[in-house]
Amino acid sequence: SLLYPYGPHQGNETNPKHDDGMSEAIALSVPFTFYGKTYQTVFVNNNGVISFNEPVRQYTLDPFPLVDGHPFVAPYWADVDNVLGGDIFYRQSTDSALLADISQDISQYFPKNPFTVTWALVATWDHVAYYGSTSKMGNTFQAVLTTDSKMFYIILNYWDIQWTTGAASDGDTETGLGGIPAHVGWEGG
């Protein structure tokens, strides 16, 4: 699989079924440095964003860089509605098998930078629907924040992307296309 293991059998927490919802504040067991700032709290937002210090409820996107300056990672920022379908999972992990897999993947792409992961936060959006959907289409993607306490990496993984836009962002209710499509990237604040 292109995704790291996820779901209840992996000890994941599950986000509530709520349009524009998010996880509770997640106190990181290992601080994460992003754009030179160290964070100890994140939110896994239903709309495809991991945000630092405060949630992101916005579903129709603004171009980067954002005016409000909220720091976040957006594996697929769009108008997700998990009430209509799909689940959102997350977990912090120091599991040796998972960390070995992540270390191997990073070393494959950055062979000159030795890196042994000591912690990871894995968030997965599993077959999530879009707001206003009249179809059974769903997107599956994942974001991983990881560190060895000196270097920090973000990994974005994609399994199946079937739609780009929710109806409130002028997307078609049948196809999930058109309007203001999803964004992928990060915002340093």
From TrEMBL:
Which source organism does the UniProt entry give? Bombycilla garrulus (Bohemian waxwing)
Q: NIDO domain: from which residue to which, for each copy?
A: 75-189
The region annotated as signal peptide is none
**InterPro entries per the UniProt record, alphabetical:** Epithelial_Barrier/Signaling, NIDO_dom
According to the UniProt record, where is the region Disordered? 1-20
Q: Note the PROSITE patterns from the entry.
A: NIDO
The organism's lineage?
Eukaryota, Metazoa, Chordata, Craniata, Vertebrata
Kindly provide the name given to this protein in its UniProt entry.
TECTA protein
Task: Tell me which Gene Ontology terms the entry assigns under biological process.
Answer: cell-matrix adhesion
PANTHER family xref list: MUCIN 4-RELATED, SUSHI DOMAIN-CONTAINING PROTEIN 2
Gene expressing this chain: Tecta_0
A Pfam family: NIDO
